[in-house]
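Extended Data, panel c. Modelled sequence:
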Amino acid sequence: MSRLRIVAEFAATRWFRPLRTRAAVERRQRRLLRRHLRFLRRRSAYFRPLLAERSAGLAALPLMDKGIMMESFDELNTVGVHREDALRTALSNERSRDFAADVRGCSIGLSSGTSGHRGLFLVSRAEREAWAGTMLARTLPRGRILGHRIALFLRADNTLYEAVGSRAVSFSYFDVFAEMTENLDRLDRYAPTILVGPPSVLLAIARAAERGEIAVHPEKVYAVAEVLEVSDERRIAAGLGQERIHQLYQCTEGFLAHTCEEGVLHLNEDGVLIEREPLGGGRFVPVVTDLRRRAQPIVRYRLGDVLRERDVPCPCGSALTAVARIEGREGDTLRLPGRDGGVVEVFADLVSRAVVYADGVAEYRIVQTGRRELEVGIEAAGDTPLAVARAHVAAELGSLADRLGAERAQVRFVTYAPEPGRKLRRVERRWRGEQDDAEL
């Protein structure tokens, strides 16, 4: 491992690549894109014929998704890794919970994501080191960069964290599949200055802190891997004594966004090009091209998340696009019949905000199971009777439908049951449309 590359990337990201204007951001993107397309012509069997014409640019390339990436894995990657070899190693790592094994010097991982479809990804050592430098530059507090203890609650470990660790910055990995009481005990002893984890895990840590079971006082807390709901953010911040909860928007497809010191999410456009499929109301689906990832190129990858752009400039002054919210998966947008006979799309964020207005709700999960059917699990807060909390939620969901011009759904309440080991999705659409109706 080259700490020099990590330090160089840290310095470039934090100090030597200011990119204070949109023009500067776009100039950098154009320069990196030209270099990347030349590389793909030479090294990727998948992209070579698509870029045969020297004048062919990014727009000439088709969109990519997880299915295409897995089907064309051998031709896409540029390091000669075969899909079956990578899959065998990734599955072995998952079963053993020891993630040290790699293939041809590349880290191998599996990603189920929120869609439930398994993906396979690989990252070279150079890419891991550049990622580490960028990540540290984005996350370490401005006032102090030395002496931090970073606790990472993640689904899978990466040996890079321990390799980067030193007297300046140390990492400790906590397996989200491990017994939570053991994790909490070790976390208490570790006393992190920076805490990173999915919102569902951060909520459990915050509750333990409120009960006095642990005494952790991190300087910064980062939410990753799951959508950070407004209500969850407030509870985590209160429980862990934070002014705000920061976010890292990262997935198999790359490190896509981070929050600035003002708590506003910014797209990492100094290394990632993001095209937009507009959905209206400032919402869009990102189409991602990682301009620096070469072992397994991510080019025009349609991510399937719904993002909403911030409609006012960020006070931090960054030229990187500011995002108001990550609203969840596009496939989890509820589709209810409209009163005019059409279909009304109800974004997951709108559903979550409606539940926030319902009194007496501690936890919830809402799943669309039919054309007009919602399955709702509620855990009441404090002394609120469950029946009262359910009535409040039903009323808010009905009011939301009325405001959007949709028919009111039939709400079926079920027992709220968390699903350990699965990404938290508070709003989900399992009903696929007319195909489901035909199967009934």
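DSSP finds 13 helices and 21 strands in the chain. This feature is highlighted in the accompanying rendering.
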